[in-house]
Structure formats: C-alpha cells, structure tokens
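Researcher: Sequence recovery benchmark, item below. Answer with residues only.
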C-alpha cells in the first residue's frame, strides 16, 4: 500500500494501467490535491477493532441482495444496458448523475476509450460503474462503519441475480490516496505521447484541486466559467501534437457526435455532478478514517485509562477530526472563475433533496459562482457514516467544527469563511441535525 513518491510526488505507470474513480483495480499514486501528503490510517484492515473482511456489513447493496433473495425486489435485464437501469432504480441512484470517463479504467480497461466511455452514477452512499459490452456491473457502497465495500453483478439474465463482494478491488482502493482505508477516488489523467514506452501520470482530485487540473480523460458537458480544464480532449496523442500550443478546452453540451450514445442513459457528463462527486469521494474516505482511528484507539486503551483520560481525545483521532472538519467546511476549496452551469438537471435534482431549515435553507444548495456550495459545510454531515461515528470521534468533530464556525479559529486559511456564512451554517444545523451539541449557538458566532 505504501509508495515512494518522486520529487513532485507522482508515481508513473504505463498507459494501460491508468485508473479513475469507482471500483477500479489498478492503482495510480499521486500527491493529494492540496499538494501535501496527509496522515492516513496505518493499522491493518484486519485489525480486531475493524475486521473489514469478516464483519457483517450493512450497506445499500447488501440490503438489496437481501430483498432479491427474499423476492421482495427484482432486477430487470435490458438487452442494451443489462441490469444497469433496474440497479440504479433499486439503489435510488439518479441518471442525472452520469459522468463519463474515457481514460482506460477499472479491470475492464480494454473495453474503454473515447468512443466507449465508462459511465459512473452515484448518490450519497453508492457509486455504479457501467461499461458498454462488459460482462459485469461495478458497484461501490458505503457501509456506515466499515467504509466502502466493492461488488460486481454479472451482466447476464438470471432468475435471481445477486451482487458479489470483490475485496480484490482493494489493491487499488486501499492506498495512501484513500487515507489508508477502503475508499474511492476521482483521477484526472494528464495528456501523454502515444509512444509505447511513455508512462502515464495523473492526479487524484477533490474540491481543493484547481479547475485547470481537473477532468483529464473525462467528458465534461456544461460550462465552467472562464477557466480552462483538461477534459474533452484525447489523453493519448502523437508526440508532435504535444509540442503544439495548447488549444482552448472544447465546450460540450452533449456527447452526441463523439460517442455512439444510443444505449447510454443520458447524452450528458454533467460538470456539476463531477464536482459533487469529487467533493464526496474524499469526504467519504475521511469519515471512514476517523471512525477506524477511534475504534482502534478504544480497543487499544484499557478502560481505566480511558476513564482517567475523561474528555481528552486520542492524538490520532484529534488529527483525523481536524482534517475532516477543515475539508467539510471547504477551508481550502479551489475558487471558481465564473458561473458553472450543468447540463443534465443534476444541480436541480441535488439541491431539491434537503433537509431544509425553518427559513428554507439547505446544505445542498449550490453556489456555482465562486464556490461549489452556497453554505460551505458538507451535506455529508447527514450521511449514515457520520451518524455511526464512535462518540469520541463525533465529539472531536463537533468541537473542531465549533472552533471554526464560532470564529475562534483565526488562521489565515479560515478567513475565507465569512461570519454570515458561518452563522447561517449553525442555524441550518440547529434545525436539521438532531444530535448537534447545544453549544452551537448563532449568537456566539463572531
């Protein structure tokens, strides 16, 4: 799992080994999006406090498997997309979330390319990967305690189809870039020569990554203000092409004309969906990491010592809480340069989900002018993984959140969080988050 980085903290692989996002099975190590390597979970996933491979899981796919086995749910096989449509419906994953990646990805790399991109769909806890003509459907689902669990579903008609767990995906999805826990990631692949001896490079991205380094190897439909990005152009090109001056990023309203799109569920690869997915992937991994750190600390510390320690927080839990909260509050978010406009209706779908406070405000409201969210606090605070955090972890997270939201944390990086925004976040949370500590008071925000 551990890698040695080069001077610019990249690792280089052959073109056929480039990996992006969901349920991929080849690992490409990179620097974090902020340019720094942060700490990660260092214990084994088989640590007795974790037991990732043997503990029962309670994710959306396991629940669907139970319903399929009991006959209370059914998946319909479609001649063009297999079980994709019925799987999305059964897991409540919106078609509007479709994002298309054409760099060679997942174990099905040989089938993927600009004319046959891989489609990824997602909601808050599930990601589904579909490749036209492939033998399997790939699914990653977040268990509230165990983190992301990987599954495949055979793309052939069956009386009782069932998703099979695939821990082999951890070869790529349990790395430094997933914070040492089973997780998910989005990769931007940099352009390279078609020389067979050339190596590919890429960057794992999230909301901290500048727009001009995102979406290499992806189709991007919609508009992104005045900033150029890496999407909508081939990843592998003749060496002579690389030497030419860079051309403006092509703007796409749909993939029609570039892809035979008749059996894709949408002709869009929505820029807003991509931005939300990028935020969500690291947030998912951060939640898993702090939960695992707290469980290991609790098992490692004798009960008497824990009682004596009282409200003190184990150092690794405190560090994980700081990392999670700063990310949750978009402290180092890359700014936008102009209006971002989606193409599929995902922005409207996402914003309508709520929950809303007494003034009609929601942490799912999008800004898309200068930043991603109208109120810079992640909607993932409502995720089952957040609610399932051990008490010591949740208390550490809330304490750190209040330090930032109240204005007590006065570091330069926090100056971008205006008092009005911080106060609004506290007000929204007081109306919508049941276990919010009583010390979260709007009047104390300064």
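Model:
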């Amino acid at each position: 799992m551990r890698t040695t980085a080069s001077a610019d903290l990249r690792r280089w692989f052959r073109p056929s080994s480039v990996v992006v996002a969901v349920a991929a099975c080849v690992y490409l190590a990179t620097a974090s999006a902020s340019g720094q390597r942060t700490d990660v979970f260092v214990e084994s996933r088989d640590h007795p406090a974790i037991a990732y491979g043997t503990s029962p899981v309670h994710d959306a796919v396991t629940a669907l498997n139970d319903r399929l086995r009991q006959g209370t749910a059914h998946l319909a096989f479609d001649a063009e997309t297999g079980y994709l449509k019925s799987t999305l419906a059964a897991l409540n994953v919106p078609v509007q979330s479709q994002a298309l990646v054409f760099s060679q990805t997942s174990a099905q790399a040989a089938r993927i390319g600009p004319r046959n991109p891989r489609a990824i769909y997602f909601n808050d806890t599930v990601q589904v990967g579909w490749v036209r003509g492939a033998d399997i459907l790939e699914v990653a689902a977040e268990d509230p305690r165990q983190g992301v669990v990987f599954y495949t579903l055979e793309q052939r008609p069956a009386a009782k189809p069932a998703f099979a767990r695939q821990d082999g995906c951890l070869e790529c999805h349990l790395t430094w870039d997933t914070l040492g826990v089973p997780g998910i990631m989005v990769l931007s692949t940099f352009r390279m020569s078609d020389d067979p001896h050339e190596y590919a490079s890429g960057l794992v991205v999230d909301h901290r990554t500048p727009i001009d380094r995102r979406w290499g190897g992806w189709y991007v439909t919609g508009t992104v203000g005045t900033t150029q990005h890496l999407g909508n152009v081939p990843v592998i090109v003749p060496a002579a092409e690389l030497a030419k001056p860079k051309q403006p990023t092509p703007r796409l309203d749909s993939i029609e004309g570039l892809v035979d799109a008749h059996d894709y569920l949408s002709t869009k690869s929505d820029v807003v969906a991509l931005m939300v997915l990028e935020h969500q992937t690291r947030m998912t991994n951060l939640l898993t990491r702090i939960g695992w750190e707290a469980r290991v600390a609790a098992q490692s510390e004798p009960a008497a010592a824990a009682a004596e320690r009282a409200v003190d927080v184990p150092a690794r839990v405190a560090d994980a809480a700081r990392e999670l909260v700063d990310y949750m509050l978009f402290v180092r978010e890359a700014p936008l340069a102009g209006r971002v406009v989606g193409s599929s209706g995902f922005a409207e779908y996402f914003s309508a989900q709520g929950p809303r406070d007494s003034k009609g405000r929601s942490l799912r409201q999008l800004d898309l002018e200068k930043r991603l969210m109208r109120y810079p606090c992640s909607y993932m605070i409502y995720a089952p993984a957040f609610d399932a955090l051990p008490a010591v972890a949740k208390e550490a997270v809330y304490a750190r959140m209040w330090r930032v939201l109240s204005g007590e944390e006065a570091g330069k990086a926090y100056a971008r969080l205006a008092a009005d925004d911080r106060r609004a976040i506290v007000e929204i949370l007081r109306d919508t988050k049941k276990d919010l500590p009583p010390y979260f008071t709007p009047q104390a925000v300064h």
